[in-house]
Specification:
Structural class: mainly alpha
Number of helices: 3
Number of strands: 0
Helix content: 55-70%
Oligomer: single chain
Largest sheet: none
Order of helices and strands: HHH
Distance between the termini: 39 Å
Length: about 50
Amino acid sequence: MKKTFDAVKFQRKRRAELSHKFEKMTPKEVIEYLKKHSVQSRRLQKGARHSA
């Protein structure tokens, strides 16, 4: 079976990229980065409403 998308491979690659990026940041910078790049913040920027 040939996979078109390998979620485990993607997650490992993404974790390595973020770890490399975060090692150069202070804890405050990491928090700001995560707030800015979170899925929820992107939804809010597009005008979607949060149903909670």
